[in-house]
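A student in our group prepared the protein record below, which I am reviewing. Here is the record exactly as it was handed to me.
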Amino acid sequence: MNTPDTSTPFAAQSLSKSYGAHTALSDVSLALPAGRVIGLLGRNGAGKSTLLNIASGFTLPSSGDALTFGTPVARLDTPQLTRLGVVQQEARLLEWMTVRQHLDFNASFYPGWDRSLESRLLESLEVDPKRKIVQLSPGERQKVGILLGVCHHPALLLLDEPMSALDPIIRARLLDALLERLRDDGCTVVISSHILDDVEKIVDWIVALDAGQLVENSPFDTLQESFAEWTVTSLNGALPARFPEPFVLSQQPGERLARLRVRTSDADAAARFAATHHAQVQSRPLNLDEMFPLLTRQQKARS
């Protein structure tokens, strides 16, 4: 692939990754936009963690190209790694250290480590620096992982299920901290999470994987404008048993009233649909949780 500018956080071309007979990623091509909060969506086993591990250099591709900051992931070194922040669902921590010792150890590798930011996050995430890692709960370990991933002001922050063990109050504080990093640092944030209500509050771009394949790579506002639920009420006679329009992704038909979930960028589609079927159409936008199953279902319908 043509080497992108080093300001491109991550790019892949025909990227595939297999573990024995299992294919985790298949022919994925994309370039992550800089300065965005990107929601990485997919069901369990879709390839999300594999993609993040490749972007961080933890895992190498089986075939294809993958570049982080314009550098092939197999050759990532100090100039790139110091610009990279990684938060995994289960942080890899040194059990015998205290939180303070672990933070100090990690800070020694980053000239730009921000002690002021560290102090604010210790307080807002309610982390006791005197406790030993071995004494921490899964949620407390996630908090430490977040501190380790963000206090050096990375240009690319990769978050793999960072909130799965956090309570709602701490999750809200974490989201505020991520938005602060975006505002103050202009960093690119990629967050993989099944807690879509929280993800929706901060993302402005969506990348979706299904069974190792890329099925969506779009601005979130474009998706919000194109997905909707229509309540269709008959004005004259019975409604069809099934609606054949290709933009109808799912339907609950009825003789007089039907509910459809649709995807179309045509602003006049609802009006034409209403005239065709002699019906009234009321449209409601979908939230991210409602869009999620439709993204993969639409891809399967095409294949």
Q: What stands out?
A: Residues 10-211 form a domain with the Rossmann fold fold (CATH 3.40.50.300). The longest strand covers residues 10-19. The chain has two domains: 10-211, 223-302. The chain is about 30% helix and 30% strand.
